[in-house]
Design goal:
about 200 residues, mainly alpha, Four Helix Bundle (Hemerythrin (Met), subunit A), two-stranded antiparallel sheet, about 55% helix
């Protein structure tokens, strides 16, 4: 599921032009350029936390910062565009998850409070990718809504996050989900709980 979601996000990033970099991201002080840098850094931080192998943005994408991004969006990431640069870091992060033999193993990830077990981290990441895909699409003036099963999973994760700290608690089973919300209402709930205005 994670790979499909990162590909959705990459497809939106493939459409970003130089002028789009300054488009504001909803409910944030970031713009699309800032969000892109956040996304690649987040993927690298997660891969590093899981594998224990430090890697820098520059190792994967070459020298890249906001100034170089603003200078030429196509020059970034070795001249292949934002989508390919994002895909490189997403594959690194996805590959890190495949190396995990104990989903209960805990790690520290930059940007997350305290330690988190790898299974909970995976669920949090699914939510973040969905939200950031919506952020990107919305900033570019497009629409985005994930598949219903993805929306339900993300909604469960967000509700768990708001009602408890990140922990080793197992995900809420689908058959115990009270009064499941469906369709557009479920995604509107995801956006509201994520402090986005649907």
């Amino acid at each position: 599921m994670l790979h499909a979601l990162t590909e959705d996000l990459a497809s939106y990033l493939s459409e970003v032009t130089q002028s789009d970099l300054k488009c504001p991201v909803p409910s944030s002080t970031r713009d699309v350029g800032d969000l892109y840098l956040h996304l690649v850094d987040q993927n690298i931080s997660i891969a590093t936390a899981i594998t224990g192998e430090a890697i820098s943005r520059e190792q994967l994408l070459g020298p890249i910062d906001r100034a170089s991004l603003d200078a030429d969006v196509e020059y970034v990431s070795g001249g292949v565009g934002l989508d390919q640069g994002y895909r490189r870091t997403a594959r690194l992060m996805e590959d890190a998850f495949t190396t995990v033999t104990d989903a209960g193993r805990r790690c520290r990830v930059q940007g997350f409070p305290g330690e988190i077990d790898v299974a909970a981290l995976y669920e949090e990441l699914l939510s973040l990718v969905v939200i950031h895909t919506w952020d990107t699409a919305h900033a570019l003036g497009w629409s985005y809504q994930p598949a219903p099963d993805v929306t339900q999973r993300v909604l469960r994760t967000i509700i768990q996050r708001t009602t408890q700290t990140l922990s080793t608690q197992p995900a809420v089973a689908a058959d115990t989900w009270p009064e499941a919300i469906d369709g557009a209402d479920a995604f509107a709930a995801v956006l509201t709980l994520s402090q986005r205005v649907p």
